[in-house]
Amino acid sequence: MEDMNRKDVIVMKLLHYFITEQDYSPVVLHGAKNEIWLENMNGEYKIVRLVSNYIHNNEQLDFDIFKTRKIVKSIKKKTLNLNMPVLSIFVDLGDNVELKNEKDIDFVRLDNEEDVKKYDFLYKHFPDIDKKLTFSEKGMNLFLRITDDINKKNVIEAQRVEEIFKPKKPIVTTALIIINVLIFLIGYAFNIHDALIGYFGNYKPLVLEGEYYRLFTCMFLHSDIFHIGFNMYALYILGTQAEGFFGKTKFTIIYILSGLAGSLLSVLLNFNTISIGASGAIFGILGALLYFGYNFRVYLGNTLIREILPVICINLLLGFSYSSIDNYAHIGGLVGGFTTSMALGFTTRSGASDKINGIIITIMLFAFLIFMNFFYAG
Question: Which of 23, 76, 213, 349 has the fewest CB atoms within 10 Å, measured from its CB?
Answer without folding.
Answer: 213
